[in-house]
Amino acid sequence: MRPCPDRHDTMILAAYGELDPEQRRDWEEHKTVCPGCREEYEALLRLLGRIRESIPVPDLSEKGASSILWSVKRELRREREKPSWWKEWVLRPGRLVPALATACLVLITFGWFGADLIWSPDRPQESLGPIYGNQLVLKDLEIIKNIEFLEELDTLQELVDVLDRRESI
Amino acid sequence: MNPQRGRLINPENRQPLSPLNDVELVDRARSRDQWAAEELVHRYEQKAYAIAYHFTDGNVQEAEDLTQEAFLKAFQNLEHFRGDSSFYTWFYRILVNVCLDGRRRNSRWQKVFLPWQSSSADKGISPEERADPEAHEHSLKAIREKELSKEIRNSIKSLPEKQRVAFQLKAFHGMSISEIAHVMNTAEGTVKSHLFRATHVLREKFKDWEEG
Predict the structure, then answer these.
(1) Mind listing the pLDDT tens digit for each residue in B38-81?
(2) Which residue of B has its CA nearest to A65?
(3) Model's pTM, two decimal places?
(4) What is the Cα–Cα distance from B99 to B111, expressed in whole angstroms?
(5) Alpha helix segments (H runs only) across B56-186
(6) Considering CB atoms only, which of B149, B196, B202 is closest to A9?
(7) Chain A residues close to B43, C-beta within 8 Å
(8) CB pair distance less than 8 Å for A47 and B177
(9) Which domain covers residue A42, as residue numbers?
(10) Domains of chain B by range and CATH?
């Protein structure tokens, strides 16, 4: 006979001892009238027993137990001996060496490139500030405006040079 | 097992003490009381080892290592234990997570090194046993039992992770559904459904095992 499909979950809970007293009573009563459920329940109990037997657990070895205890003791000792964070900095200044070295390296690197940027003769004009930049732009505009006049001045200068050379000959 | 293990001895005067409950021991261990910590270890090491043993499919060394790792983690995080649940469910949650991490770690290693591993462990009946009919006859039942045990172990191993955890904690370690829910950090209904599925799968797989 087949077990009742609607009793499937109850059967599993009963096998694991997870039914409350009322449910348990109800299940026991059902078992007496339903041979399918009774047989399936007994088979399930036997299977669970066989599964438990299939993986017997040996006792934890003395060596394993003492190893666990030793590591826990060591951890507790370490925790107990651990000073507070500020004491750690004070008592072990050596811990600061890598941090200080990194900070120095950063300062040197950025300091070098920073100085190079500030003091380089062909640095971009923007780096010297907006006022200086504006002044240069005005100066350039003036040159552009008078470019023709300046070109004429150049031509005159050349003529003067030619005349000077002739006179000297 | 050492019969001395688990006995409560006062380290000051070496006299036995009355048993303290877990909460008192945890409080003492928090204030770096070594004796209390040792007592907690003695109290749970065997059960913890059994759980780890099942999770590692019977690997003794790995089970011991995982048990040790779980205890260390527990004592390192004892400050975070708020007492919402009992110490042992809190500790078993750590243990189960350590075991699952170990299992994942192992499966990654196995994926890398499996092609180089020999398949000697899976040989079954040796040629000598086959050649000797008397010995074969004599050990036939034992071999069948052994094969069945192996098949059961493989079937449990092949269950989805959560179903496997719920099933192992229930069937092998007799935890209640609410305890398993705490350990797995999930709802009781979810644990029930994992248990139903796992049990159903195993029942279907071994429907005729008694006849065979």
Answers:
(1) 899 999 999 999 999 999 888 899 999 999 999 999 988 888 88
(2) B45
(3) 0.66
(4) 18
(5) 60-76, 87-113, 127-131, 133-157, 161-171, 177-184
(6) B196
(7) none
(8) no
(9) 5-54
(10) 1-110 (1.10.1740.10), 159-212 (1.10.10.10)
